[in-house]
Structure formats: structure tokens, C-alpha cells
Amino acid sequence: MAGLSQQEMNLLHVVQDDFPLTRQPFRDIGRRAGLTEKETLVLLQKLKSENIVREISILLDSKKTGYKSTLVALNADEWEMETVIPRINAHPGVSHNYLRQGFYNVWFTLTIPAKRVFIKEIISLFGSKSLSYLILSSLQTFKIGVRFAIGEHKKNIYRKTMRIRNDVTRELSSFEKEILRKLQVEFPLDPDPWKILSEHCRVNPDELVKMISDWKREGIIKRIAAFIRHRNVGYTANGMVCFNVPEQNINESGKIVSQYQEVSHCYQRQAFREWPYNLYAMVHCKEQADCNTIISNIANKIDCKDYQVLYSIKELKKERIRYFMEEK
To answer: Where are the strands (E) in 181-270, listed by range?
Structure first.
């Protein structure tokens, strides 16, 4: 891949996986990439400074942490966007916001504490304006988890194995929330990151690693990994496909769509009379023509003729949600 050395490509391939819960994780990551610990840390710092690696952090599960998320589709003209977009992006619960093609041209994800009401929260973002919008809540998750192929690493562009998470949730203690809040920082690029994090959390390093291990087992922590700016490694075509699938075929269709390596996310969402689409898939390719080919193949495979492809025109916001900040 242009601009990246073979060592950098090897490392990018490895750091998208879950970090090992060892006292020297970068040493073990380096071994997998054919690097020393020092080389691993230096290259990761370089890749971050060059905006290849967006961040290295701990990814939490919204439902397990007492939050809820939804996708929102909004119709706004050019004048309305001038005032509405800044209000949407300023909300700490908005992680992704894209300008896309079509009648509903602003698409954002909103994550809020479960006790709050989506409708009230969304309307508050519009100020005095009355806009057409849809709350597209997720009814079922078929696939989630991006993993981009880098250089010669062509296999498993995305995680094909869908992790079945335990839906049982429990109330987190105030102590757990405090530790999880403090863990939502940039993962230290240090030979002993747990020591730095444990000092920040004011717990013993071994105790912290055990807590993280337990939370991962419960599904509260999804993984610790590097998140890549996909456009900066060549994946410039980003299409959201909305399929109108008969209700009786939704499970089978979701499983089929999820098998495609180019599909990173696949959900069943709420459908509406004015927007009858109920199966959503995110498709990433290096060229839009490749995306169109993949999408056409998927549509044929699931026998769906009614679908829309919404390519992103502009990324308006992309930030990881920080949980429990309102309790700080």
C-alpha cells in the first residue's frame, strides 16, 4: 500500500485485533507483527501522528453500560443544516454523523442513558426548527466489527465470526462506573500501560487487568484495539445499503449479508410507511464501482429488488462515545 512500509502494514493488521491482557501487551503485539516492543511503540506513535490510526482505546458496549443507541435519519436543507448540524455535533452522545445522498440526507447515531427519551433528546437538537426525521432503532444485530485488510493481508477483511453477546445486563456499581469512566482515555503507548492506567484509576495493576478481563467476559468491554481512519488506508467508498426485506425472510437475509467480507455492520431496524427499509448493511471498498458490484451481488443473493444505496458525501463527526461522563 502506497506510503506504508511492510512493517507498518504488518502492525496495522495486528493491532486491529483485541489487545492481549498481559503486562507487556506491546511486546506480544510486536512479536505477532515481527517487531520488537520498541519498534512497535515507535511505529504506532508514527501512525497516530500521520492520522492512520485514529485512536487506541477500550470499546464499551452501550447496552451493558446502561445506555441505549439509535440511528437517526434527518431531512434538512442547506440553510437548516447551517444551524442544526453544529447542535447535533455538539451533543456528547452523537458519535457518527454523515451527510449522505437521498431525501434523508443527515444520518447520525445517538447514544444516551437508558432513562432518557429519544424523541425529546432528538427534538432538542433541532432548536426551534420542525424537521422530518426517523428514529431507526436496532431490533437485531447480525454483524458488527470492522477490520480492514492492509497490504498483503487480504483474508478476513472484516471479522466474519459474529460474537453472540449475552443480553443479560446488571446494574454497575458506582465504583465500576468510576473505573470504566477513567479507562476511557487514549491507551498508553508504554511498555507497561497497565501501570499508567492503574495509577490513573488508583487500583493495583493486577487488579485492574482482572477487572478488565471480567468485564470482557460479561460483554461490558467489547475489546481494546486500534481504530483506523479507513479513508487514509485506501477504503474511500463507504455505502450504507437499506434493504426492504419481507419480515419472514429477515433472519436468513441478515445471515447471508453478514457473510460478505466487505460488510462491516448489519442490523435489522424499525421500518416506517414512508421508509419501508428494515435491513441495513455498511459496505466498505476502495472504489465505488467495487461497492456497487458487491451490493448488487448481495441484493441478488437475498432476492431483494427494493433497496437504496446511500453513499457518504461528507463525514460531519466521528468520535467515540465517552460513558459516565455526566456522573463525573
So the answer is: 221-228, 237-243, 263-269
